[in-house]
Amino acid sequence: MLRFVVRRLALLVPILVGLSILLFLWVRALPGGPAEALLGERATPEAVARVKRLYGLDRPWYEQYLTWVGNVFRGDLGVSSRTQHPVLEELLRTFPATVELALTAMIFAVGVGVPLGYFAARRHGTWLDHLSVAGSLFGITIPVFFLGYMLKFVFAEKLGILPTDGRQDPLMDAEHPTGFYVLDGLVTGNPEAAWDALTHLVLPGVALGTIPLAIVVRITRASVLDVLHEDYVRTAEAKGLRPATIRGRHVLRNALLPVVTIIGLQVGLLLGGAVLTETVFAFPGFGKFMADSIMARDYAVLQGFILFTAVIFVLVNLLVDIAYGLIDPRVRTA
User: Fold this and answer.
1) In b/e form, how buried is each residue of 136-148, taking b as 16+ CB within 10 angstroms?
2) CA dihedral 199, 203, 206, 209 (to 10 degrees)
3) Which of 83, 86, 65 is nearest to 75 (CA)?
4) Which InterPro entries match (predicted)?
5) What value does the mean pLDDT take over residues 67-95?
6) Which of 18, 119, 201, 212 has the fewest CB atoms within 10 Å, i.e. is most exposed?
7) CA distance 306 to 291
8) Alpha-carbon distance 168 to 65, whole Å?
9) Nearest to 304 by CA among 316, 294, 318
């Protein structure tokens, strides 16, 4: 298993180098340029040339790239032209909110999607199977922002049982040593603050997790249907093994590989793509800050946040590969 993990880690190096080069060149190919973004309305040709000389933007791209990579390794992602704060500081401030939201969405998607997909496959052709297929199609097609507004209208405005936006009640007296509000409430001995933060996660978590839920249901259903018709499942049934053993050891475990792939990809997408959900619910996370920075042409934030998101995707895929090896030992020897 150790050799398997080391091989996967070795493959990450060229991937990350290639991603960083593409990102660096792409950002500099955007219209306007970093100098114009920093100067704003004062972007005269003379001022632009002066800023380029000051920040080394007039040097060849490969020299700028090496300087930038060196700064990244030292933890320096630049300074936001919009907030005048270090990009790393903004990243550490906003990312915990998005992690909480993404975990809530994924717990909802996996906790509902895997059992529903499994039972739909076991009841193939029944009303439960048809209902799960129709529901998954509805979940994939409905826009996230529309679902978010509908959830706010029903559960926040009409029923009044859940908060509409934000991460926590502004009147709540709570400490935030880690930035993860639910965890902070538990660590500081303030269960009321933890519960309040958790209730603020319900509506955006459900809205964000609807599409992953629909995908997980369909993939689980299809994978379990394939495994149910395998010879080793029929052999296990013929040998008289207990149904619980057949379901757990032979059916569900072998059906999990494609499901794990989808879960891993969706985690990366949720962490990097919660822009609409965070905007609808005024959730001050990674995605909303990224969207505001794009509108303000904040190139330092854009570059640093996209690089961070790419690293998250790569690490999540590494975890998926490791999960493959744990679920199916044949993958480690392939």
Assistant:
1) beebeeeebeebb
2) -100
3) 86
4) BPD_transp_1_N, MetI-like, MetI-like_sf
5) 83
6) 18
7) 12
8) 40
9) 294
Distances (CA, A) of 242 to 39, 238, 246, 248, 290: 71, 11, 6, 10, 52
Residues 299, 310 contacting (CB under 8 angstroms): no
Q: Which helix (H) or strand (E) holds 208?
A: helix 191-228
Which token pair is 177?
């040593």
Structure tokens belonging to residue 242: 């207990």
From 299, 273, 242, select the one nearest 26 (Cα to Cα).
299
pLDDT tens by residue, 240-278: 777 667 666 667 777 777 888 788 777 777 776 577 888
Model confidence pTM above 0.90: no
Question: DSSP secondary-structure letter at 249?
Answer: I
Q: What is the DSSP string of 113-158?
A: HHHHHHHHHHTTTSHHHHHHHHHHHHHHHS-HHHHHHHHIIIIIII
Distance CA 163, CA 252 (A): 37
DSSP 3-state assignment of 175?
coil
SS3 helix, strand, coil % of the chain, rounded to 5? 80, 0, 20
**Cα–Cα distance measured from residue 236 to residue 243, given in angstroms and rounded to the nearest whole number:** 9
Q: 3-class DSSP state for residue 11?
A: helix
Which DSSP string do the residues of 26-79 spell out, in sequence order? HHHHSSSHHHHHHHGGG--HHHHHHHHHHHTTTS-HHHHHHHHHHHHHTT---B
